[in-house]
Amino acid sequence: MRLSRWLDQTGALAQLLDAEQFLRAYGQHVVSFGRCMGWAQSLNLSLASDTLDGTIIYYGRLVDDATRLSSINTPLLGIFAENDSGIPPSAVYAFQSWLDQAGITDYDITIYPNTDHAFANPTGDNYAPDATRDA
User: Fold this and answer.
1) Taking Cα atoms as reference points, which of 56, 16, 14, 51 lies closest to residue 33?
2) Cβ atoms of 4 and 44 closer than 8 Å
3) Is the Cα dihedral 17, 23, 29, 33 positive or negative?
4) Strand partners, 58
5) What's the total number of domains in the chain?
6) CATH no. for residue 73?
7) Which structural domain range is residue 67 located in?
8) 3-class DSSP assignment, residue 54
9) Widest CA span of the chain, in angstroms?
């Protein structure tokens, strides 16, 4: 949480855009994946890049602005937990509505039942191996 508050968002985005271009030199496709705070960074990259091939978001802060979301031009996969108090299903459904309003159609959002935030962390108390494998 502390790192999230102190992170220079502009600088982080510039580094992600540079990293995307660097990786593109080594392969045909570049997909952004972020978990928790990294989710916001993954989505920010998707909002700023015209060349990204895919975006995966795993929990994290949601964007609720159809104008901003309309710049997404990549498939989007969202993975969420049913019992996440920080990102409850109602917020995820609202995010889907914003995507729809933005005209984004190439997305797949899954809310895993009976899971909590960080369910994919095998060292955490909320680890859910079946949901993690599926995700």
Assistant:
1) 56
2) no
3) negative
4) 35, 79
5) 1
6) 3.40.50.1820
7) 2-134
8) strand
9) 41
